[in-house]
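Model the whole thing, not chain by chain.
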Amino acid sequence: MTGVLRVLRSVLLTLGLPAVILLAWWFTSAGSTTFYNPPLSAILGTFRETWFSAPLGESRLAVDVVPSVLRLLAGYGIALVAGIALGVAIGSSRALRAFAEPVLEFFRAIPPPVLVPVLMLFLGIGDTMKIVVIAIGCLWPVLLNTVEGVRGLDPVLRDTARAYRLGLVATLRHLVLRGASPQIVTGARQALSIGIILMVISEMFAAKDGLGFSIVQFQRGFAIPEMWSGVILLGVVGVLLSLVFRAVSHAVLRWYLGYRQSQHGGA
Amino acid sequence: MSSPANVADRPVDDHPGGARLEVRNLRKVYTGRGEPVEAVADLTFEVRPGELVCVVGPSGAGKTTLLRCLAGLLPATSGDVSLGGAPITGPPPGMAVVLQEYGRSLFPWMSVAQNVELPLKEKRVPKARRAELVDETLAAVGLADVAGSYPWQLSGGMQQRVAIARAVAYEPQVLLMDEPFAAVDAQTRFELEDLVRTLWKRLGITVVFVTHDIDEAIYLGERVLVLSARPTVVLEDVAVGLGADRDQLETRGDAEFARLRTHVYELVQQAKQGVRSLADAHLTHPADTPPRAGA
Amino acid sequence: MTRTHRLAGRRTPAWALGLAGVVVFLLVLELAPRLGLVDARFLPPASRILAALAERLRTPELWTALGQTLTTWGTGLAISLVAGVVLGVVIGSVSVLRAVTASTIEFLRPVPSVALIPVAVLLYSTGMAGTLLLVVYASFWQVLVQVLSGVQDVDPVASDTARSYRFSPLTRIRTVVWPTTLPYAMTGLRLAASVALILTVTGELLIGTPGIGKLLGIAQSSGAVESMYAYVVVTGLLGVAVNLLARALEGRVLFWHPSVRGEVAA
């Protein structure tokens, strides 16, 4: 009995406020004739027909949303690989770190959206430009956090790995990457939100397709309910990506959560 | 338990599993930022195959520097260190190390069993043999039931047992231990000391055990190397005639134990005051009776 | 840091290596276009970019834009900070509120703030308010989430003690909750400061709110490539200044605090 109550309580707590907000939006906008603030019922009505209109292969979901997300994943993936590789190299060498640090600090500080107009010069407005923009924007947080993580590796663990004659590959795999993984995940999380921003604005700037492109098209054409449906869809994409990210990072850092707790308790 | 078990009854002085460790005119000067620091001035000693030698000295005597040079983790400024006749330039095969910082020498992202297994994987030990070694050594240190746990879920003493199990499973010819029990409580410490003696006798390997604890050095060692303060030289190479079988109550109550303890204690005190050779030491309790094994 | 300035031993000091890094970088940037490795129309040599920067720095236009950018950034950051701290402390201190809002916060936080760009354009056209909306939405969560975890980190014993002495809620917040939360809030501020700058420039580029980003966009579309790079350098320097300022502020406020909080906790 108490078990049922507890489940009920947690469902109520989780869904309560979102439901209240949605209902409030629904009813306050219901009779709305304001141009910018269409009824929620109208937005949701257009949502299906805007994004999922059959056949699925030709719907906006397939034509606009999927390419956007694929570009994001491509750029993000490149940034992860390059950032971790460079970060391990820079983090492992004191001299290289000192050499690169001021330049990296500067590049990190450049707000990534300014990359869009710069790279448009070189690469036009195609997929390559967008992927490169996302990759470069995501690179810095991954790179700098990896450097921190590698630099912070416990020297005792390094000695242990050397004393037991772990080779380069094993040292990278079992010591460096695992030991730096908490920082790498932090960097990857920062990079993901920057990547989403860049995905959207590179399409808003100049594009032929994509989620950001569609939303701006709707706005310019004063298709307001469609625009709102796009805003909501973009929000949902952001939430879904962060859920996936969280699941992956939990799996990667399972040891770290317990380890940190044990350090806290012991201190 | 196949391989360790059948050597268990072998006499102590017949140790086929060990290798000879030679140190000749070892010198180490740190040159970092600022003034160069001479940590080790001139060390010469030898550890015979299958011997258990303890190294004591005042704090800051360069004990850890010495151990890191032996382990091949730190290049010597001059002099030679060799293992079984081969000069040590980097961490040599056949050598295992147990460090003082047990909590930091185990990989926190690996289970206890994985920590023990990793060096074996790298040594390309076949999978079945790896599993056997992991099980055997974890059982030998009394940790068979926590093989799947993470190191940080264990107490300090248990973590150090994992480090010992990892070293033993590696089947080294030489085991180096750097103040391994400095950070565990007294009870656990006694247990771990007996564990080291037991494993050493069973495996017949060469052990170099660095400690700042004089009682521990005498209780464990066949010989005790007393070091001077930095820059380090060997003050005296003290033979320990306490026999092969030691017992925390019996041995520590032994008159010979007390005599050695007094002697080494005085040496360390003199070393602290800067005495750099036995001839210069003013000992109030001279170590005149040469120790007889089993007396 | 001061240690690295001492010339000793065989080690080259870090600042010299860093300087060498900057010089090498500038050299590559100078030579690559001159040797034809990259198209000089798209990436002019470093000397010409720096010359354009020097020339821009003499125009009032740049300084006005810089002021506008800083105003938008500062206003947005201040609003986020106040709102984040107040709401964070209130929600964090009342367990019912925390439970009720948790799912909503978790859902709204990852919603990308750039989704609001069309809304901002419709509501405010090119005015500062539109960009402010983006800035506040993005940086508010950074502060709120940090403050919430700070309030949760309050020592339960201290909290119980305060309750048993019947402190008023305000006194309890001032003496027990706030000292624990402050370091978290500072971390939130540091993260929010750089996010706010990103969104300020985004708004200027895309919506056309006056500021450095707008000038950059104009320079790009009018083919003034050297000026465009000069503005990129300005935004970079601005970013460096923001980072240094936020870090210095964090250190200054927390100089008494025993635990210097790391990045990972964020």
